[in-house]
Design goal:
Structural class: mainly alpha
Number of domains: 1
Radius of gyration: 15 Å
Oligomer: single chain
Shape: globular
Helix content: 40-55%
Amino acid sequence: MPDHFHILIGQRPNVALSDLVRNIKAGSSGFINDRRWVAGRFSWQEGFGAFSYAHSQLSTVISYIENQQEHHRRKSLSEEYVELLKRFNVPHDQRYIFQPVDPD
């Protein structure tokens, strides 16, 4: 997807999620910039969304990730993200929900 990506990771509880995401963002930004894959300097937006799933749900999650293009023809990232926050009763402030990225 042009405005987000999903990554499915099996993680032990002794690693802080924010540390993992920070390392992924730093490593991938460096990789992209070293190879000059984009004009200018690439950087990720601040923040991230993370959800945990049971091992029994892996096939459902994998299928969801594999079908992102089709899925987001019907529902935007922001719409879906807010639905998930509401479904799982996660307090949130609409001001901090993902905003569309200007492709320029």
